[in-house]
Design goal:
Layout: H1 3-6, H2 21-29, H3 31-34, H4 37-40, E1 48-52, H5 78-88, E2 96-100, H6 108-121, E3 129-134, H7 143-146, E4 153-157, H8 162-169, H9 173-178, H10 181-188, E5 192-198, H11 206-215, E6 220-225, H12 240-253, E7 262-268, H13 273-281, E8 290-292, E9 298-303, E10 308-314, E11 324-327, E12 333-335, H14 345-348, H15 360-367, H16 371-395, H17 412-415
Parallel strand pairs: 1-2, 1-11, 2-3, 3-4, 4-5, 5-6, 6-7, 7-10
Antiparallel strand pairs: 8-9, 9-10, 11-12
Length: 418
Amino acid sequence: MGFAVTGLRGGVGRRTNIVRPNDFWHSLIDGEQMDPLGRRLPTNSPRTLTLVVNNRCNLACRHCYLQVDKLADTELSLEEWGLVAHRMASAVETDAVSVTGKEVFLGEKGISILETLSSAFHAVASAPRLGLISNGTLAHRWLDRILPLQLDYFDISIDGDQPEHDANRGRGAFAAMARNLPPLKERFGDRLFANLTLQKRNLPALDRAFRKLSALGFSTIGIGFYQPQPYTDPALALAAEDFERFFSTLRALATAPLDRPLTLLMELDLTNLQAQQAFLRSGWFDPAAVFEDSRRDLIQELRFPNGLTCQFRLDFWPSLISRSARLTPEGLYLTAEDTLNTRLYPLATLGSIREFGGDILALHQAACQHPRLQAVWTNYVKREWPLLRVALLESGAIDETAPTASPQPETSQTLFTK
């Protein structure tokens, strides 16, 4: 799901030939393929699990969705996180575990949890990959403990060049982040990613942002899209014309001279349907360039002579805790679709890790039976899929003669059969 939810997950996986254009379209528009989609969604564990280790931060970002007045319960202890870590190490169907927080490195607990996870995962040959998301400003406090960690990726949230970044995160935030980059870049190399959330303030300066981040040593920049919540800054919200402007900016960048090769990885999923629709209508969408990578994500990749690579990670249906799920600081389990509005967490939770003694895999299996998943699927069928199909038609990728069958709301007994 969106980068705000899971981070870049180490970028795009190895290219495979599993998905051919005809297979891809049949999976989208053919009723016989779509009807049983729900039955294929539950798995023994989520493909990506995000662990939120705290709800505190040293910054006060205007677009941050992690605003929780009061946790529903006490935070998990380090011992409880240890139980989660050792159980996740055996989750062979999970590709990646992403550690985040409001800020992972505020206080010692975050780095201790990372050490516990790293130790548990690297004792098992088939354990998931492990990475983190941070604002980067506090990494210097824990460098002696970060650098030895066997992390597979390290994401730093950056809103652009210094003026745009500081306007959103506070004066001095860019300089505090930038001073920590050299040792992190030396340690992680191309596994150090910039994670940029596109919003109203940084959209006009994107070209400068890309060049600045490239000069700082980032070879891959992830781009997500700001999704305003009732408690975040509405002035940063993107209008329909802003999405059009963004894809026009990309087109100009594809022909502009670059100092060094640059990869832009864009997340286009149901957490921001408007961005997904704009992409389909922009002329960028090329179904012949879609493939499934080794991490089972649908990817469109386009390479340009100036060294620019544009990668689009495409999700056209709900995760329903199959592709992505989240564990909050107090141990609540959520679908990716329910991640962004923290005020609704108590209503949307699928269960608590404490009810299962730290056994995250048992919690996941129980969550597969939860009525909330049926509600997410039904909303997709009734509201989101029709809008997506219209955008696909308008893109010219499919024609009016394509089958009109849509995925059907299924009963919970059918939807969640293991």
